[in-house]
Amino acid sequence: MASGVPFHYVDLRAFCYATEDEKRVADALSTFLPDTDEEEPPLARDETEGFHGDRILVLSARLERADEMRHVLSKLTDLDDIETVIEELDQRVDEDCTFFLTLDKQAAFRGEVKRGDGITLRAKVEAYPAKKESAVENVRETLEELRAA
Prior knowledge:
InterPro entries: PAB1135-like (IPR002739), Ribosomal_uL5_dom_sf (IPR022803). This is RNA-binding protein. By secondary structure, this protein is α+β, with helices and mostly antiparallel strands. It has a single domain, classed as 50s Ribosomal Protein L5, Chain: A. The chain is built from six helices and five strands.
């Protein structure tokens, strides 16, 4: 990726419901995180409460270094339907130049990368001027470049 990474940051987030094992949810999220020397992935943990008073743990990571973001992007190229993601970029990038994608938490726990529910990827796209059209084109070029590599 000669031009670098087209994002200011990438946020990954997953909810861990009371019926789920926190370690398994953390493992699923770590599928998208670069390997570190740490035994536990560097995740933020915020506790909240569901509608019926049940505990919900929000696990999240913000990646701001180019190598970390490149790792996440390279994982996205493992998607069977990356072509569909590229075709849908106009719906996946908002007016604030933020790219959104949801990923399958169960598949991620198995080390697989699939679209689905459970993990939210949100990335702030670098775009000059900061317009949706520029952001869409930046993400498109990057995903196509990675896919071809």
